[in-house]
Amino acid sequence: MANRFLSPDQSKWYGPTHMGAGLHDSAKRVSKFVFDGPDGSAVAKLRGAYVSTVEAVHGLRGKRTEAEGSKRFTALGLSEHVAEYAMTGQIPAVRRARAVVEKVRAEIADKRSKLALPKPSDEERRDHEEIRAAMRGMSDEQRKNFIAANRQNPTVAAAIANAAIPALAGLDAMQHQHIVAEQLQREHGETLAELADLEEVVGVVDRVTDLAREELREIIGVSREVFEGVARVGEAGDGELPFRVEQRQIGGETKEVCRVYDMAAKEWRDASPDEIQKVAA
Fold it and tell me: Is the pLDDT score of 42 beyond 90?
């Protein structure tokens, strides 16, 4: 069955088939984003995360190509230049996209965990207790045959699933778990199917964000250790330049001065009014 979020309008499908330039590298294969959802929905947020990730990779590759064409950098200088650019743009963008994936995945897990079987009435509870008592008195073979013959019987299945512990029905934990899952499917099949479809969408964006981070490292041209050091700064500040407040003597008075670290000049400088306003906000 097709994913319910699949867009029939192929003009809305977006994205590459591979991350990076390796069109024949199966390790870099990704899926296009072929899903659609209303504004504000989880699918729409995931689409935004997917698009921003792909654009981040393309943007950094373009920056490196531009820098290479300038002939102004040594190999090391080129990597430093591209890394500084990525630190305040592409690396935080991919991290934000990753956060969307993590949030939607957590929401799915939370919704699934809250699905429960309906509580039986007093009459149903008595029927369930009789069925479980009868099952406990059966031999293993008799119980196996009884379950096989009555697994689709809603009363029998509910009696087993609603047992506080598997032993009350004469079953082991795995058998009990399977029957509980079947009952949840009967009661919440549509919701579970929708969550499964959404998980498929999450999986597409999860892979893109995962491969994109490695792609950024390759574009910069540094080791994983060096990249992680660069990424920690960019991700911690969400792309903002490192910021601090210093005490300075001005006109015989001690005043606070806002400073930012200029990545290109590799030195601290006084922050501009716009930079101060952004931090204050």
Answer: yes
